[in-house]
Amino acid sequence: MWVFWALLAAISAALVIVLTKAGLKNIDSSLAFAIQSVMILVITWGVVFFQGNFHEWRAIEKNAWVFLIAAGVFTTLSTLFSYKALSQGPASVVVTLERSSLVIAIILSVIFLKEKLTWQVIVGGSVMIAGAVLISLSNSRD
């Protein structure tokens, strides 16, 4: 079932990039993100209340709070940086470079989460980086 959710996340992320790029005309990138953040809050808290698990916040351990808050800070920074890049560059290149974060995440998960590094992961990550470089170079001449 996780594959289904991951594919929905990929489709949603792609839509975010295209819709954001279209919406950034004549608007500051930080303001655009602030507007979208309101929807993020409304929808995510709506889901929490709909699922009936709001009361579970009291059971969250201290370490989990630290990790989740730090992740929230980096999510915000990542999105602000991404929107700034989208406001200045072509979506196809911006998203390609931004998604090189997948390779960085692989490296960090091996170092900090002790996840196994296989030859398939190494080859896949290398192909992702090569693709990002290729797309960036092809658009830098335009």
UniProtKB/TrEMBL annotation:
Transmembrane regions: 6-24, 31-52, 64-81, 93-113, 119-137
SUPFAM superfamilies reported in the protein's UniProt record: Multidrug resistance efflux transporter EmrE
Gene3D superfamilies hit by this protein: 1.10.3730.20
Entry coiled-coil feature ranges: none
Sorted UniProt keywords: Membrane, Transmembrane, Transmembrane helix
Residue span, EamA domain: 1-136
PANTHER family with a match to the protein in the record: ACYL-MALONYL CONDENSING ENZYME-RELATED, SOLUTE CARRIER FAMILY 35 MEMBER G2-RELATED
Protein name: EamA family transporter
